[in-house]
Amino acid sequence: MKTDLQARKFNHVFKWFDQNGDGWVTQDDVETMAGLFSAVAEENDQKNRSAMKRGFPHWWTLLLDAREDKASERIGKQEFIRIMDAVVIAPKNFEIAVVGIVDGLLGALDRDGNGSLSREEYVRMYEALGIPPTTSGEAFRRLDRNGDGELSHSEFHQAIVEYYLSSDPNAPGNWLLGSLDALD
């Protein structure tokens, strides 16, 4: 059962997915998101591009299968939030849709293969996804739990889990997409 905090975060994810800003998430919006994410990877990085491209259609299928109006090919904000809570964050679905995308993204960004992201890699990633460097820079500082100037894959995974699953308003993962105050 989602908390008010999770509903706020899911609302932000809805706004991010609604790429054309028309108040609905459609297959075109999801494909645009997949394109934004996969474009972060180098052109010859098929492994990570494929992982991200697989995750988004799976996420879209979860949304479509759980919608109330089976005739509609679009999903409004309240239904999106309901489906996120009831279906997408269920452990099996979360692993395939969300974590699969994240693993591909991390693999694509960790170009030196050291198992972590530098602040510059992290900021560049979010800038490519439409999040300003000032927001992502502060988020990086909060997510770098051990303060070593690198965001390990495990720190990033922990942030993902906290963002989607935690009801703790003080969890560092709440900063994944910037300040919660900016979500309102």
TrEMBL record:
EF-hand domain boundaries: 108-132, 138-166
Superkingdom of this protein's organism: Bacteria
Family matches, as CDD domains: EFh (cd00051)
GO molecular function: calcium ion binding
Protein name as it appears in the record: Calcium-binding protein
Organism: Melittangium boletus DSM 14713
InterPro entries: EF-hand-dom_pair, EF_Hand_1_Ca_BS, EF_hand_dom
Pfam family for this entry, one: EF-hand_7
